[in-house]
Amino acid sequence: GPFTTVGGWGIWLWLPVAAGLMCICAVYSHVGARIPLTGYAYQWNSRLMGSSYGWFTGWTCFLAFVTGTASVAVTISTVFAPEFWHDPSKANVVLLAGIVTGVALALNLISIRATAVVNNFGVTFELAGSLVAAGILFVGGIFFFNHSAGPSVLFQSGPVGGGSINLTAVGLAALLP
User: Fold this and answer.
1) What local confidence, expressed as pLDDT, does residue 150 receive?
2) Contact, 10 vs 173, CB < 8 A?
3) d(Cα 139, Cα 153) in Å, to the nearest integer?
4) Helices (DSSP H) in 33-144: which residue ranges?
5) What is the DSSP code (8-state) at residue 72?
6) 3-state SS class at 9
7) Which residues of the chain carry a pLDDT beneath 70?
8) DSSP state, 1?
9) Distance CA 157, CA 153 (A)
């Protein structure tokens, strides 16, 4: 993490990284608002660059959706397979990934409204969990955790294990934000 490679001031790397991410989000939101709802990337790129480029983009996006769906399903299955099997095998993970994909397909086939309800529930649960975790850390930090360094730790420099700070260390520390 940033604290082991550059010290306590590594927390300040979050500010420029957050600013850069906000710029990227602004660009994506601007572009995303102009993608047509039907035809997706094929229609948009066909009009901008020609039908051959649109065809290539459409197939690339289709492959991205297929691989993205499969990777999310396998990731979920890898995490939750031990809840269903004592010592899950690869076949168990693949089976659970197929079930997860089937449930997602069924929700999408039922209606977009059903998919939106499940998505909104998940987002609400995630935000509530994040707020509760932040509250626990805040209250714990004020009242219960051992305060040995204080706020001055945010301005200390130097790796925990000793050594020098160079561009590689700062680059590695910037990966966490």
Assistant:
1) 65
2) yes
3) 19
4) 40-49, 51-84, 90-110, 112-139
5) H
6) helix
7) 1-5, 35-40, 145-154, 156-163, 176-177
8) -
9) 9
